[in-house]
Design brief:
- The chain is mainly α.
- It contains 15 helices and two strands.
- Strands 1-2 form a two-stranded antiparallel ribbon.
- It is extended.
């Protein structure tokens, strides 16, 4: 990815007839100097910082991880499962004999062992460590994504400060690319979780995902049908601007070329994308809502904590 960044955003056009400059200009219109300038330096400050951050992220991952610190810093606890001896001792029963002893005593029935639910059982708690979290599914994906999001936030803040102080007109805004990669990887992880729900044979997870996918499909279609007088997104104006610039660019480059994609197909693609993202966010949204309700119940006698709980949504 970094080599592609160097190639596309560190390339300087050698002649005015270069293909990269008019193509970027056709997409960006008159404001092409902010995100995709016509001329770019070979190695800008942002690219050097991006390479440095990528190297630090790779070197620091085995030693320190922000995601591991969140889960395995000792603030979260897990409960140890009691042994069978402890359960039978608290229930006042003897531990069932082994298969060989039952066979010698003439007992051949293998009845399941059970203990009452109202026994006085005190579970032992222990802090969650990295070894305990490694057995969790998708823990490595969670760790990598959270670390990448933290480094992406740092790069984005640096680029924004760099643009405010220096105002470089000949460099691409690489911080936007880091943010787009963060969004892409988040959707990828949500898709992995949704695929796991689809593979399960038991339960109605598949039906719930499909139901919410059609629900968000309907909502997206309603939003696109509503007139701009009531709900303004600027989608039609943006598509018209892009089409005009692309048409002028294609006429300059190849004569009588036409754009093979219509506005309707782009809108349908946006509707399908919204439906897919809504289906991916179904179960994480339900789990977040349940966690929020549990947090409110636990902090029922602390109103300050209840006021701070909605900050988790951000």
């Amino acid at each position: 990815s970094l080599l592609l960044l160097v190639f596309f955003f560190g390339h300087e056009p050698r002649s005015p007839s270069s293909l990269l400059a008019p193509l970027l200009k056709s997409f960006a219109g008159s404001d092409a100097g902010f995100f995709f300038p016509a001329k770019m330096v070979v190695m800008g400050v942002q690219l050097v910082v991006s390479l440095l951050v990528a190297s630090i992220m790779q070197k620091m991952a085995p030693h320190f991880s922000f995601a591991r610190w969140i889960l395995c810093s000792g603030r979260l606890y897990r409960y140890r499962h009691p042994s069978e001896e402890e359960l039978f001792a608290l229930a006042g029963k003897q531990k069932p004999k082994g298969r060989r002893e039952r066979r010698l005593n003439g007992v051949t029935e293998n009845k399941p062992s059970s203990v009452p639910r109202d026994i006085d059982l005190q579970l032992e708690s222990t802090p969650i460590r990295t070894v305990d979290a490694l057995v969790l599914q998708y823990f490595l994906e969670y760790q990598w994504y959270v670390d990448f999001a933290v480094y992406s936030t740092f790069v984005y803040l640096f680029t924004e400060g760099y643009y405010c102080l220096v105002d470089p007109r000949k460099e691409a805004n690489i911080g936007i690319l880091w943010c787009l990669l963060t969004v892409f990887f988040s959707i990828k992880i949500f898709f992995m979780v949704m695929r796991h729900y689809f593979k399960s044979e038991e339960g109605g997870e598949r039906s719930v995902c499909l139901s919410f996918a059609f629900f968000f499909l309907l909502i997206a279609m309603v939003v696109l049908v509503v007139r701009d007088d009531y709900l303004e997104f600027g989608l039609d104006a943006g598509l018209t601007n892009v089409y005009n610039n692309l048409e002028a660019f294609l006429k300059e480059q190849a004569g009588d070329w036409t754009i093979p994609v219509t506005k309707l197909s782009i809108k349908l693609s946006l509707v399908a994308l919204c439906s897919f993202i809504g289906a991916c966010l179904t179960f994480p949204g339900l789990r977040l809502a349940q966690t929020h309700l549990d947090a409110l119940k636990l902090a029922a006698d602390r109103p300050v904590i209840q006021l701070c709980n909605p900050a988790d949504f951000f």
